[in-house]
Design brief:
Elements lengths: L16 H5 L16 E2 L2 E6 L2 E7 L8 E6 L2 E8 L14 E8 L10 E5 L2 E7 L9 E3 L1 E3 L3 H4 L3
Parallel strand pairs: 1-6, 7-10
Antiparallel strand pairs: 2-3, 3-8, 4-5, 4-9, 5-6, 7-8
Length: about 150
């Protein structure tokens, strides 16, 4: 199994399906079933008693993003609807977006903070110390400037 390590972490983060098989599974560039959600690029770090998951979700608002927590799984999903505007050319991605990240241990959903600023979702998760609650949703709020969202 592949290990994902951060510069400040001794813990591993299990890859999700996209990491194991690649976004082009089964080997066709850009292939994915029409109903399959797009993958969301993420970055997970650990420092100062917190896991920090950052996800790129440009062109959305907090109301478009859902963060779910179940045991040690954090799932970020979003919908980006295509406009009716006539376009001569577009490389934007529309539809469903989804990414699930497995953390090394179960996390308490009621202590997670999620903010969205300038296309970047930042989810701060305290390293667990108690009994987690399963199957909860984390509210996403609009943040300040992007510089306020970067981990120190």
């Amino acid at each position: 199994m592949a290990e994902h390590r951060t510069a400040h972490s001794r813990h591993w983060f299990a890859p999700d399906f996209d990491d194991w098989f690649g976004r082009g599974f089964p080997g066709l560039p850009g292939w994915r079933p029409g109903s399959a959600p797009h993958s969301i690029p993420v970055e997970v770090t650990q420092r100062d008693g917190m896991y920090v998951l950052r996800a790129e979700l440009p062109g959305m608002g907090p109301e478009d993003i859902h963060v779910g927590v179940e045991d040690n799984l954090i799932t970020v999903s979003a919908e980006h609807d295509e406009t009716d505007q006539d376009k001569g050319h577009s490389e934007f991605r529309y539809g469903s977006f989804r990414r699930t990240v497995r953390l090394p241990e179960a996390v308490p959903a009621d202590r997670i903070d999620a903010t969205y600023t300038d296309g970047l979702l930042t989810v701060r998760i305290p390293v667990p110390g108690g009994e987690p609650k399963a199957g909860q949703t984390v509210p996403v709020r609009r943040g300040g400037t992007r510089n306020e969202q970067r981990p120190a």
